[in-house]
Each structure stands twice: as structure tokens, then as C-alpha cells.
Automatic annotation (TrEMBL):
Highest taxon of the lineage: Bacteria
Protein name: CBS domain-containing protein
Pfam families: CBS
SUPFAM superfamilies referenced in this protein's UniProt entry, alphabetically: CBS-domain pair (SSF54631)
Stretches assigned to the CBS domain: 3-52
Length: 135
């Protein structure tokens, strides 16, 4: 996981407005790590998240708190988690950047592109089909 993740470039407190996150993301492809006031990771905000809020609320999106704007169900990865586990998350949930934690400390962000490149370099990758629901 360590060789695929990127460093955390931007951090913001969950009580700050989205306008502050937008300022951090200006001229950047990175996501913003959102932490609560006590320092615990709450999730990530990417440019597409900000654009979605701007489209829904053109007049007041920049005043929405980052805590309310973090996508629901954002998962967290552990630094020692195998890449195959990430593939399973992508397959069963959503393909999105994910925060990587060592304990409770954020140590990086895993973006989808490096994971897909890793997959392309694995000729023997055997990824089983997901279990079928019982009928």
C-alpha cells in the first residue's frame, strides 16, 4: 500500500466551510483530508465533491461545513492492508480516493489511478467473482 499511496497535501478541520477547502484545492488534483477538531479523520473532499455541492446550492455552497459535505460511507484503509482489499472495496462500493491510516493517524491518500496501474502490472492477479446473493 505504501508504494501506491500519495502523501496528504491538504488538511482541513471539519468545522471549516467548503470555501476554505476550495481555496486549498485551487490548482491541485489532490483531495483534502477532513479531520474533526480533536484530530480524527472524518473523510476526504475532492474537487468533484465541491462541484456537486456548488451545483446543488449555487448561492451558499461555500458556507456548508466540511463535516456535512464529506461523502457518506467513505471507507478508511489501513497502511498494512493488501491492495486486493482495495480492489474489493472498489468492486463492491465506490471507486474513490481513500484515506490511509496507521492506527488513527493519517499517513496518505490512495487514489484510484495507481491502483489501476498496479492491476495492469499483475499478470497473475486472480480476483474471484463476488458472492452471489441467495435466492
Amino acid at each position: 500500500m505504501a508504494e501506491l499511496m500519495s502523501p496528504v497535501e491538504h488538511t482541513i478541520v471539519s468545522t471549516q466551510p467548503l470555501g476554505d477547502a476550495a481555496n486549498l484545492l485551487r490548482d491541485s488534483d489532490a483531495a483534502v483530508l477532513v479531520r474533526d477538531p480533536s484530530g480524527h479523520t472524518k473523510g476526504l473532499l475532492a474537487a468533484r465533491d465541491l462541484a456537486a455541492h456548488a451545483a446543488q446550492n449555487p448561492e451558499g455552497w461555500h458556507q456548508i461545513l466540511c463535516a456535512a459535505a464529506c461523502p457518506a460511507g467513505t471507507g478508511f484503509l489501513r497502511a498494512q492492508q493488501p491492495v486486493e482489499g482495495v480492489l474489493w472495496l472498489y468492486r463492491t462500493e465506490k471507486v474513490q480516493p481513500l484515506p490511509v491510516l496507521n492506527g488513527w493517524k493519517p499517513v496518505g491518500i490512495l487514489y484510484p489511478e495507481p491502483v489501476f496501474l498496479w492491476c495492469a502490472e499483475q499478470p497473475d492477479l486472480d480476483f474471484p467473482a463476488p458472492p452471489q446473493p441467495r435466492q
